Amino acid sequence: MAGSAHDSAIYARLFDAGEASKLFTDTAEVRAMLIVEGALAKAQGALGIIPELSAAAIHRATLEITLDPGGLGPAAAVNGVPVPGLVEAFRKEMQAPEHAQYLHWGATSQDIVDTGLMLRLRQLLGLVEGNLREVLKSLSDLAAAHADLPMAGRTYGQYATPVSFGSVVAQWGNPLLDCLDDLEGVNRSLLVSLSGAAGTGSVWGAKAPALRAALAEGLGLTDPGRSWHSDRGPLLRITGWLTAVAVALGKMGEDLILMAQSGVGEVRLGQAGGSSTMPQKQNPVQPSVLVAVARQVIGLNATLQGAGLARQERDGAAWFTEWLTVPQLCLSAATAAEVAKALAPGLTPQPVAMRAAFDQSQGLMQAEALSFHLSAHMPRPEAQAAVKKLCRQVIAEGGDLGTAARADFPGIDLSPVFDGTAQLGEAPAFARKFAVRVRNA
């Protein structure tokens, strides 16, 4: 098995991160770092920190020169960071030492690596947002169409009270809408990093704030107005958002696995997997991917939280931990959004199976409603005791709660209790409210 499923010829299509896969390659990292170096030189030239002619030459060269990532490996192994090797290789390829000497003027490796990562994370967030909007469109259509379709609500895996399929879909979608609402703030965490060796920007003197602001403007990133070399909060806010997305989609996956299982069959998946030996199998592959990547993202996010305890002005071990975890977390979160986009349009509820759950529950899903209905005719404690007795009787002797209740209370009209559609409460309204919220998002 490959070191990462996303890099595997066998598993990459199962855990398909889509276009996001292109953002986490050595080539993409080198290109992002060169973009940062070019933008830095351009900003420094405009502010008179380096000669403007050299700045223009460097900026142009960063757009034209291609570096082999493999050539940076030996230096990275020694230095613990790829930037010294990148600067050396670029100066050699530029073949203009009079200009190349001004490359990377006053910057430190972390400035280049972190800013380059932010450029790629900006693209990633855009890709995930686009996929989430498509998922939400499919879920909103499903919720609106089936807002009034009764199905068994379950708590602790047991029959509880009736819900509607549309309200269940809304429960999947509302956390995703919350994520979209939070995205504007998350995007503000896409920060430029430019602080120099120990985060003080001392090499640039009084021009340091203006240089950082100019670099941020040139790259379309946010100027933090400070150093964040050892403050990993900006990165953690982004990965935390991606984790929230993966968790929300993982919950949908968990529910779908249960709803599609043999003996339940309350939903049909548009696509299912087969078995190598059992021809009848219709395996819920896509929901299982959602659950698996959510679990992975949760674990990786916990590791990143630990790496947030960065020591002093820069912590190499904490930084290395990010390199080991951030790409996998990002690709797995992107996988969740890609898979959900493909999964959601094919979901089809199965009303017959949903109705069968009411029959199989022996009417016990209406026990709460029955106790409240009887409370209009007797004290509440007596009503509760009577219903508990009837439930024990039905469980022990068979039959159904409706028949037993009508036998014990022949003078009370119980039809409002045992009409499944009458016990949905706000479920249909929740489903329709979700659909409207998606339309307005």
Q: Quick gist of this model?
A:
With 441 residues, the chain is mainly alpha-helical. The chain contains 17 helices and 4 strands. The protein has helices at residues 26-46, 52-64, 73-79, 83-94, 97-100, 109-145, 165-187, 208-219, 233-260, 285-307, 316-343, 351-360, 367-374, 380-397, 401-408, 415-418, 427-440; strands at 150-155, 158-164, 267-268, 348-349.
Describe the structure.
It holds the Pfam family Lyase_1. The chain has 441 residues and is mainly α. The protein folds into three domains: 127 residues, Fumarase/aspartase (N-terminal domain) (Fumarase C, Chain B, domain 1, Orthogonal Bundle); 231 residues, Up-down Bundle (Fumarase C, Chain A, domain 2); 66 residues, Orthogonal Bundle (Ribonucleotide Reductase Protein R1, domain 1), CATH 1.10.40.30. It has 17 helices and four strands. The strands form two sheets. It has a two-stranded antiparallel ribbon. Strands 3-4 form a two-stranded antiparallel ribbon. Helix 6 runs antiparallel to helix 7, helix 6 packs parallel to helix 11 and helix 9 packs parallel to helix 11. The longest helix is centred in the first third of the chain and has 37 residues. 45% of the residues are buried. About 2% of the residues have low confidence.
